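Escalated from tier 1: fructose -6-phosphate holo job.
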Amino acid sequence: MCGIVGYVGTEEAQDILLRGLKTLEYRGYDSVGVSIKSDDGIKLCKMSGRVAGLESYLEKNRISGLIGIGHTRWATHGGVSQMNSHPHASFSKKIHIVHNGIIENYADLKVFLQGKGFYFESETDSEVIAHLLEYYCCDNFFDGLIESLRHLTGVFAFAAMFGEEIYIAKKGSPIVVGHGLQEYIFSSDLSGLSGRARDVVFLEDGEIAVLRSSSCDFFSFSGEKIDKQFMEVNFDSSESLLEGYPHYMVKEIFQQAEVLERIIQNYIDKNSIAFSFMNPGCFSELKKIYIVACGTAYHAGLVGKSIIEGYSRISVEVVVASEFINNDPILEGNTLCILISQSGETMDTLFALRKAKSLGIYTLAIVNSRFSTISREADEVLYSLAGVEIAVASTKAYISQIGVLYLFAAYLSGYKRDLSEFLDTFRQLPRVLRETFCLDSQIEGLAERFSSKNKVFFIGRGLDYASAVEASLKLKEVSYISSEAYPAGELKHGTIALIDDQTLTIAISSQESLNSKMISNAKEVQARGGDVLFLGKSSSHDDFSTFETLILPEFDSMFAPFVTIVPLQLFAYYTSLKLGLDVDKPRNLAKSVTVE
Ligand code: F6R
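Tier 2 regenerated the structure:
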């Protein structure tokens, strides 16, 4: 989703902004632009398309200057066009702004400003910020900013460049300011700082930063000066490199064994689980758990429900975050709400967290990005330790989320049972994943064979159904092939009408006890002319030899979700490549969804 970057210092802003914009590409965007203050005023350059396009234009048309702002836009209000791209300039062109979020009352403000003679060039909500600032800032910029903030409703992080200064205001959307030698750099996330600054400060809602090359001051929205300390962070910028892989998605799929090793190293101590909670007592008498998340993180929650209910016998409800916000949850005594998020910034999940807190429900965030808003606001946090995930389609974050959920299930049940067998099996997972990676070339061949299908169904039972849902999302995200997941027994209750020779059904069968039922369901599809790809374990190979098969390594079926998803992530990856698509940046998607 929209990304902001800005620089004020002693070096050429253009290069630093372009580097920052490239690292923000992974968030998902459709247009890009920069404004840089040169000797003869602020120069703006923006376009729809990729950062590479802006870069090659600016190579030939360099803008020299030491202060600048840049933006990657993911269209919400107004289509994808040069005019709707950011930055936006005020009427006099003296103020340039970039914005992430949504100004909810923009239509009223636009009418008001048009009445005062302001002319709008774009269809965006963001442009009102530039004109509003100009309207209120005629005498003193800072006072005008405070007045403007009183009139803006919605969610935003914006940066306004005026004179030799940049003013940043935050309400809802994230922004981090980094401090280097005689320079400040800011961005929507740590990666956008391009490793230039190790000392950073995260703005909180209702805070303003005023940046000059030599100083940075912080204020509240009411204009009072506030004290904020920069802190040192370790950000591994090698995570942002392809390191020999052709794409981030495949790099991240193959990193999944290491992710599990990191989880084992950090969270397992001999025969116990080493979570350090602020208030561990809160977990001992739980009556009910809500798991709330979006997309892939929600699918991790589906796995979490099975494992927590199976292991600790606590009732779990998994709710899509945007629905949880509107629901009226029934509180049954000691309740916990688990929020799962890779980015820690997803607006729906953040609002669900705030709702849970307002209802007095204790909250636990399972989050990948350190220092993210959700990790800061939840009562308890477990970091999922996936490392930086760049590809828009989530893979290693999912494995990390289910890894932490398995350990949390064991942690809850540890009040009653010995965990040694469970933990021994968990420790085997990195090895089993590495065996699964050996299926790579076979999967590439299968993707080649099936990439012309116009519809794919994923079916599974129990834990395999949760993998089916995630596998289906992965395929549709990166290949744009229509796909759906069904509990295997449900297909015959209607959807089987869609099966024909243009469809592929991928049957996931990792649970010995359900294997014969899965084979029957797959045969029902085959009997209607549909192709079947059957994922199963070698022990039952003879039974399903009539299908195209993918034999998974032997493993404990209770841990199946770690293993069954890997070949299906690879299948989605190779299908996307066979179709010639941009696998790391699929159309219309954003990595960090910071609007409701
Ligand atoms: C799918 C995907 C999305 C995210 C969802 C939640 O590959 O990446 O479905 O899982 O937008 O994002 P986070 O986990 O950042 O809250």
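The chain is about 35% helix and 25% strand.
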